[in-house]
Amino acid sequence: MSHDNGPSLWSTFSAGLWRENPIFAIVIGLCPTMAVTNTVTNALVMGVATAFVLMGSSAMVSALRKVTPGPVRITIYIIIIATFVSAVDWALAALLPLAHKQLGAFISLIVVNCIILGRAEAFAARNPVLPSVLDALGMAAGFTLAMLMISTPREILGSGTLLGLPLFGPRFEPWVIMVLPPGGFLTMATELTILAWWRHRSAERQALAEAT
Amino acid sequence: MDDLVWIFANASVINNFTLAYFLGLCPFFGVTNRIDTAFRLGVANLFTLLITSLSATLLDRYVLVHAPYLQLISYIVVIAGTVQFVEMAIKKLSPALFRALGIDLPLITTNGAILGLALFQSSKGYGLVQGLVYALGAGVGLTLAMVIMAGLREEIEFAPISKLLRGVALNFFVAGMLSLAFMGFAGLFAKG
Hints:
The complex is a heterodimer.
Chain A: H1 9-19, H2 30-35, H3 40-63, H4 73-95, H5 97-103, H6 105-108, H7 114-122, H8 129-159, E1 161-162, E2 165-166, H9 181-211
Antiparallel strand pairs in A: 1-2
Chain B: H1 2-14, H2 25-30, H3 35-62, H4 71-93, H5 95-101, H6 112-124, H7 128-156, H8 168-183
Helix pairs in contact in B: 1-7, 3-4, 3-6, 3-7, 4-5, 4-6, 7-8
């Protein structure tokens, strides 16, 4: 396989991790990012489930890319994705019934996660199977990373625990709003602000270095 | 009757699909630059929700009792078909609106609120009328959230705010405040 006419396999994988992170850089796939990040465990299960669906559907879409008729491709992608999500839904119900119950409808709602359809349309539909799976893996890792970054402060502040283990002892007064819906929006807003400040600062430093 | 009022209030404001369940956040942040576009997309969503609710009830009653594992796949196919139909109807009835909505129209398919409605309605065991009222409430709530958001954003355009906060981060702060405000509706039907 030649590496000179396209990005290397490693950079295909690593793009999704941070540079093109679906949550913080492209800002898609927000629904689960807000809805199931009230505890770190939920976020982890959701991340793994999404990773499976993303890799499976990317491989399938890529393998079928030459026989998929253009006008109905979106419908076909959706059906492929829905098939994988159904599999995850039933598998989780059997293996981790507690987590399945807590995540509820949000497992089924992976179908409408824009990241998955977005990667199918933007990458898997025009690339061979191996790069498509690597791209899916990178995006899924980036998604899980972002979910962890949002769920960790929410769980610590909102319930005083991490992965269900108490952190602060009995006198801790939980900041309940953080595990309720507004907490999701506010945590995301705070982290986006910090990232913007950080980017702004490094751009300024670079400009300064170039000027001198 | 009380029951239907409760279902409507629950879906529209108390457990607002956008602000409490985080469904359909993409259009919520994407098309809320202007009030009129937000309102029109809200109405298109409302229409899709009503048809989906009807189809989901029929599917539940006649098809899914025989093959429950097809639930997700059959819902999403019905939704994709409905959206296609709504798209064609809007194109025929109001070409101007069709152009104004652009890519956001076919993307209603991947709006979590629509699939969410079908799933919630079936897990709550709502019948035909209850389901339709639930869909109506969800659509009204969705439109309400988008119109309020658009109104706030139109005003914020001119407010003196740090450049760092502008853009996505600011939208999330505004959405957080709206979500806080909507939590107040939880006391609407409290007993005593």
